[in-house]
């Protein structure tokens, strides 16, 4: 596979703050690539440099074989950008919005209207954008980014502040976009989103990439216990601790959970005691990898 994006030793500072501190990665043609990190990790700044919206202090970016900075007009028709905040023209309908964006690239109205169908907004074409729901506005924003049929699409936290149903509906759209052969670069702090959508991810914090690879490979590389949960009250927590002294046992009055690296004998012992009511078994997830790398403290 050929590399659509090549980033090498990227740096960007604002005074003493190192927003991007030596970032390097590649994105292959047709790949769905995710950049993950807590608030302030440097995700958006990295993306803006790659898109050619910001000048790096040091390092290089190659985008479809070209440098995006200084602003490269040859790249603009080949990439679509959905920014973190929607910016629509006041008092225009959804149809008028997308036709306006499409006209910047010489795209005819008919083709722009077809994009509303692609993102499931054909029935909202004559509604003003300010009356649309959050999920519908995100779909319209993505439609505007796709109106000129770019081969590379950047999405900066497209599902932020959406309800669960709207998020999952948008996931289906993003899969379709990638399935049509487009390269997609996504920033998000929703770990389930990245695990579901991305072929590979890079986990960032404090301006650096801490780890990268396919989500499943990153999860397998984490030495994390299996979590076994049963309904609280099925067995006393003290008895469970005595049975499994090497496990971590917690009872929150709803579920009794057992974290163990030897799940088979634990499950067998619970079965022998007819204590499988409410049973659930789960392994490590991308969220566990993320927290292991970035820490658990809250950062606004």
TrEMBL record:
GO terms (BP aspect): response to antibiotic
A Gene Ontology molecular function term of the record: ATP binding
Domain ABC transporter: 5-231
Record bears the keyword ATP-binding: yes
Lineage top rank: taxon: Bacteria
Major subcellular location class: membrane
Topology with respect to the bilayer: Peripheral membrane protein
UniProt keyword Membrane, yes or no: yes
Subcellular location: Cell membrane
Cellular component GO terms, alphabetical: plasma membrane
Keywords: Antibiotic resistance, ATP-binding, Cell membrane, Membrane, Nucleotide-binding, Translocase, Transport
Recorded family membership: Belongs to the ABC transporter superfamily.
Protein name: ABC transporter ATP-binding protein
Organism the protein comes from: Dactylosporangium aurantiacum
């Amino acid at each position: 596979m050929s590399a659509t994006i090549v980033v090498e030793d990227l740096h960007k500072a604002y005074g003493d703050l190192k927003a991007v501190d030596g970032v390097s990665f590649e994105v292959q043609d047709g790949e769905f690539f995710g950049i993950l990190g807590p608030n302030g990790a440097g995700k958006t700044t990295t993306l803006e440099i790659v898109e050619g919206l910001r000048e790096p202090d040091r390092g290089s970016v190659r985008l479809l074989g070209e440098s995006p900075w200084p602003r490269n007009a040859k790249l603009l028709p080949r990439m679509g950008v959905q920014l973190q905040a929607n910016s629509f023209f006041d008092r225009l309908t959804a149809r008028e919005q997308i036709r306006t964006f499409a006209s910047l690239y010489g795209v005819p109205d008919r083709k722009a209207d077809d994009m509303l169908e692609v993102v499931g907004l054909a029935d909202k074409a004559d509604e003003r954008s300010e009356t649309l729901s959050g999920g519908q506005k995100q779909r319209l924003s993505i439609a505007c980014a796709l109106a000129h049929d770019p081969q590379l699409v950047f999405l900066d936290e497209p599902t932020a502040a959406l309800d669960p149903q709207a998020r999952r509906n948008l996931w289906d759209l993003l899969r379709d976009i990638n399935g049509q052969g487009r390269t997609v670069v996504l920033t998000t702090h929703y770990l389930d989103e990245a695990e579901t959508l991305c072929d590979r991810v890079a986990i960032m914090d404090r301006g650096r990439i801490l780890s990268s690879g396919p989500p499943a490979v990153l999860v397998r590389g984490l030495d994390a216990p299996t979590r076994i949960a049963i309904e609280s009250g099925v067995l006393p927590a003290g008895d469970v601790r005595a049975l499994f002294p090497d496990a971590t046992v917690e009872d929150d009055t709803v579920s009794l959970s057992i974290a163990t690296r030897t799940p088979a004998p634990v499950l067998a012992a619970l079965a022998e005691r007819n204590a499988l009511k409410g049973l659930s078994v789960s392994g490590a997830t991308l969220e566990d990898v993320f927290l292991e790398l970035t820490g658990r403290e809250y950062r606004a």
